[in-house]
Amino acid sequence: MNKINEYPSKAKCTHEQNGYPCFVPAQRVLNLIGKKWSIQIINVLGNGNQVRYNDLREQLRRGWKKNKISDATLSARLAELSEEGVLIRDIHPEIPPKVEYSLSEKGEELAEALQPLIDWTIKTCHE
Amino acid sequence: MNKINEYPSKAKCTHEQNGYPCFVPAQRVLNLIGKKWSIQIINVLGNGNQVRYNDLREQLRRGWKKNKISDATLSARLAELSEEGVLIRDIHPEIPPKVEYSLSEKGEELAEALQPLIDWTIKTCHE
What we know:
The structure is a homodimer.
Chain A: H1 24-33, H2 38-45, E1 51-52, H3 53-61, H4 71-83, E2 87-92, E3 98-103, H5 105-125
Antiparallel strand pairs in A: 1-3, 2-3
């Protein structure tokens, strides 16, 4: 890992203080995606997928006999990811209203940046 | 982000159940490094650095006028990272005992896998 205070000026953070590296945004994002089910949600919505709430829940629950994701948890994660700008909630004006979730451009970038970490955790899981 | 259940068989996880992707290890690691100060600690100890407790605390506190890391928090993070095998606690049999912290091989790999995510958060921080 490079020292952040050796970063090129392009990446120089306005949050830097006395040469202290800016980990504030990394911290916030890691905290968000470290919460239960966040990365699974990002995975299901990745690659441009638009998924309705019930389908999303179904995909997340697939394969789990117990410890299935609850509606309360799924709603909380969707709200947090949406607030962070990672996820788009697309409401179609139909009756009944059709709501679809997808990753924003920021979300797709996050998914891409996250992939090496996920690859590594899966690799080490088998060592 | 690739669908994990499209992973090559090499990365196939024993935790997989009915084709459900194994995010358990990613979840655990993300939860750990999502905690306050974890990534800063990994950053200070990266690149083969061996750092004594007081030096580590000093480096983490540099630039902060308030919200400095407390001894309780630093000790908790060091214990957690050590338990996960990310960090090595090297005790030199001297009087008084000299304790140095460094990243394990697993820790260096984690730092490398984490770098794209940190780069991305810093980049988006300035947009």
